[in-house]
């Protein structure tokens, strides 16, 4: 029997928290992992978000090559988006590569894998899968029936946000714990069904618990001293302990031919909230122009002056009082409001005078470029670069009015973070907000000496945690160095590492390199082999969500502040 690999992917697991709590005796299995295997930080993708990073884990390439920038994909030549799906991943995944080599694979719960693609094994699609009943929830479809029969349901999404909003924190935490527990049980159940060459399971509840409860675990957060700990001392630690228990079970379960890879797609941190100000920021700088004369423009303009919220809750305020409850319980009405709202937001822009813009759900700045945008006015070349330089300079100088701290850590031209054929579909500028502060505002002095104050245009209620660029990587098992701190790993390195461990060549277009430095001398006798990357790409992209599912999916994204 050859080497096998078991991957435990833990969304947003934060290396500093794992090290600290393992050292304090709270996470005994992680402590064992650190002592007996390799453990270190791992660099996530350019903007350290799940929809970029998980596909980079699966494909070994940076987002410019796999094509997914966020949970929403820009439809080229339009100002519109559709939800990212497995069909949008334009590079081959390790699950597909290993299937070609006749190896058995299982891929459970990975974001951006809906609809499940055929493999030599099984797929349970991940976050944003509408339900177990949806076509493509699992591959083969019979797995969905098995899960239905054995577990009754499948928690693609824990029911949390409404409990957070209602301040029922305990209920939200319990639902996260239950969802995580079910996913671990399902993982064990499917693992036991046969021998797997690659068994990979992801959990996302760790990400959610940090988004909601980050101030409980970070003394640098201004609310650290103030949060109510009467119901739970540290909800983030509670989830980490549950993950630790699952880790212990997997360490017991796997045989001595199997290498365990524990990883996260990025880490957690303080939520800066800067992106809620971006659209207003561009508007105040005179780059984004709004129509004043149209009905839509004036309607939205008047709403804007009365409220900061650009969510469907604005719709609530537009409606006469008596109509609200009955109308809003109707999904179609909600959808109408949402569509109307999204379209209004686009159509209210005066494109003939707009040089740069951002969407209310997708806030990184775009230049309104002639030849790319349907109503682009900025010429490629010098003018395009001037606009980018100006935005970068203004954002770099912008401050938080309460603390005087810089609002951003760094601002990038997109090509500084990504490379590849799909870069054209990415925003022109990428902002790393200052992750040391939750922003109270965004202020800058422009070139004319005028003080620009951006308004907050997004509701981020109940969200306190954001992401950080360093995730976790750990290898443990035969041929892996013991007690080693692994330095310099990148998320793109994992796919080639797994292929190397399983004895296969690495496709030559992968950006990552096998992590040979984590392995013993004996285990690295064999040189790394390369093969020409497969030209097989997923089929053309089409809308895969039904209208009803789209509404539900959008709500999930909103719950965690993605849109
Ligand atoms: Zn994530």
Characterization of this structure:
This protein has helices at residues 15-23, 28-36, 50-59, 63-66, 94-100, 142-151, 161-165, 169-191, 205-213, 235-253, 278-284, 295-306, 312-318, 324-328, 331-347, 382-397, 414-417, 494-501, 547-559; strands spanning 4-10, 38-43, 72-74, 81-83, 105-110, 121-125, 138-139, 198-203, 258-263, 267-270, 356-357, 366-367, 408-413, 429-433, 442-445, 451-454, 465-468, 470-476, 484-490, 506-507, 530-531. The chain has 563 residues and is of the alpha/beta class. It has three domains: 4-253 and 477-559, Alkaline Phosphatase, subunit A; 274-290 and 349-454, no CATH class; 294-339. The strands form seven sheets. The protein has a nine-stranded mixed sheet with strand order 7-6-5-8-1-9-18-2-19, with helices on both faces. Strands 3-4 form a two-stranded antiparallel sheet. Mean pLDDT is 89; it is low at 300-334. The chain binds zinc ion. The site of zinc ion has 6 residues, from loops. Zinc ion binds at residues 11-12, 50, 207, 265-266.
